[in-house]
């Protein structure tokens, strides 16, 4: 049942006076529930509880934390239809997407559990000492990763399950041994509360300390700012806009004790389509890209917002095919009236900008918050002259840029800001003539695709979902896949410690049976 209250550790709490409602964007009306915003005292209480919980939680073994994550997955599943109904009512996304995203969220939790059960993730490194070494004896050094402390997570609007309350940030932080305080996304506070109740149940069932998880309601920036500034918080996970992500990153860096804010922000995900690919398969690529641009009403951080090609008859034909295919796509309901109106005004700016030619723009839609797809074309000269054209329009929008030559294509790529993904569409025979283009594309992105569409982010260890600024605040880290855990840990070296006082991961004899780097060689001995 949705109560509208905050979870301060295991207790429901609503001491504040500010309340708000979520919106059903399909019906364009408020949902029934009232949510009470957390007060400063409740933020502080959650932070204190997280600090106390950390002292206990960090002592739990990997296997105990794995059991907690698996229990969260089970409890989310047990929420059944109620949470699916809340998700669809608060996001306008269809039930099929809700089910799929719930499955992904459960899969992420279980994959972090499996990582803990295997145990290698601590990156144990042992360099044995040598007392006989001259001129000075060599100390015995043993290094592993340990949890940093309580983490604040900002739920994302566009993934109410997979990048929110029990999403990748929370799962990876809990896996690392860090208590989590979620700043619930105001657009899906009811879904967030139900998922929080599942996490609390799982914590109680598996004997985790009170305060290992809290969920704070908030509409507006105050609660988020208080959390990031709170001395108990040691790192932050965020997914959302460049504006908010940059503000929070600065806030974290400006503290007396600076902390990292791992922000996943905007991206226009450039696609380079080479001449032979246009000739051979232009129409089929146009069909695929129309689907990718409009997928989920374009509300994905990997949405292909920029398509680059070399001008000529083939690029013109591709533009026509893409416009026609986009014209066949339905307008889908967007997440919230505000996101819909930002999309409409951002799109209009692009349609009105100097030099843009409108190739496709849907005018009709059934629902008030449906995002009507659009495609514009611009020359590279105009694109290079106006940096406004390089910005993200969050929704089913894309821009085709016609470059006069390969040299100008390179110039455009080298002008782009950092991106999550870049895609190359090419025939095998032409690739060797474009190695400089591929290198320029790779230098801008965290994931480079060959003959594919960037939407669809596989959750697996080799995924890197993070790119140079401003797509993320730190290109070295991913927010998807098991390596997301490394945002919440730091290495510590033990020097000359007796065996019995070392953590099991670093003891001779390897009692955990994990893969370790011993005197430079990886082994499980
Ligand atoms: P947002 O504006 O970035 O907000 C995300 C969260 O951060 C919200 O909980 C918000 O709180 C909080 N927040 C915003 N500004 C803050 C600040 N200065 N200090 C502290 N907290 C702050 O994102 P959104 O509401 O989810 O969507 C708005 C836009 O973000 C979209 O139209 C889109 O452009 C972009 N977006 C991008 C991605 C991506 O993956 N690239 C994903 C989602 C959204 P309040 O809402 O309570 O103010």
UniProtKB/TrEMBL annotation:
<dbReference type="InterPro" id="IPR016161">
    <property type="entry name" value="Ald_DH/histidinol_DH"/>
</dbReference>
<dbReference type="InterPro" id="IPR016162">
    <property type="entry name" value="Ald_DH_N"/>
</dbReference>
<keyword id="KW-0560">Oxidoreductase</keyword>
<dbReference type="InterPro" id="IPR015590">
    <property type="entry name" value="Aldehyde_DH_dom"/>
</dbReference>
<dbReference type="GO" id="GO:0016620">
    <property type="term" value="F:oxidoreductase activity, acting on the aldehyde or oxo group of donors, NAD or NADP as acceptor"/>
</dbReference>
<dbReference type="InterPro" id="IPR016163">
    <property type="entry name" value="Ald_DH_C"/>
</dbReference>
<feature type="domain" description="Aldehyde dehydrogenase">
    <location>
        <begin position="16"/>
        <end position="467"/>
    </location>
</feature>
<dbReference type="InterPro" id="IPR050740">
    <property type="entry name" value="Aldehyde_DH_Superfamily"/>
</dbReference>
<dbReference type="Pfam" id="PF00171">
    <property type="entry name" value="Aldedh"/>
</dbReference>
<dbReference type="InterPro" id="IPR044151">
    <property type="entry name" value="ALDH_KGSADH"/>
</dbReference>
<protein>
    <submittedName>
        <fullName>Aldehyde dehydrogenase (NADP(+))</fullName>
    </submittedName>
</protein>
